[in-house]
Amino acid sequence: MNPDQDREDPAQALAMQSAWEWVMKAHEQPLSEADHEALARWLEADPRHRTAHAQASRLWLLSGLVPLAHDDDGLPH
């Protein structure tokens, strides 16, 4: 995917925003059965949704592997 694609395609940008919301919600607490069903419907509604969700999930996982640039005191390491 082209890095500028979100700026070129408002629907893709909206899909990415929704994907982030789903990924964050799933990491804050377990999804309910209704949430799982809503997520499944959202993923099936548009191919861009599945792509955006996969990207957001990968970025979420990768962000956990990146060490913090600052300690809790805000000073660089």
Which descriptors would you attach to this protein?
single chain, 77 residues
Describe the protein in words.
The protein is mainly alpha-helical and 77 residues long. The protein is 71% helix and 0% strand. It has helices at 5-8, 10-28, 33-45, 47-65. Helix 2 (10-28) packs across helix 4 (47-65) and helix 3 crosses helix 4 (47-65). The longest helix has 19 residues, at 10-28. The chain is flat and about 30 Å long.
Task: Set out the fold topology.
Elements lengths: L4 H4 L1 H19 L4 H13 L1 H19 L12
Helix pairs in contact: 2-4, 3-4
What proportion strand? under 5%
Which bin fits the share of residues in helices? Answer: over 70%
- Give the biggest sheet: none
Order of helices and strands: HHHH
Q: Could you say which structural class the secondary elements and strand pairing correspond to?
A: mainly alpha
Termini distance?
34 Å
Question: What is the typical, i.e. mean, pLDDT?
Answer: 83
Tally the beta strands. Answer: 0
Assembly of the depicted chains: single chain
Number of helical stretches of at least 4 residues: 4
Radius of gyration: 15 Å
- Report the uncertain regions: none
Overall shape = flat
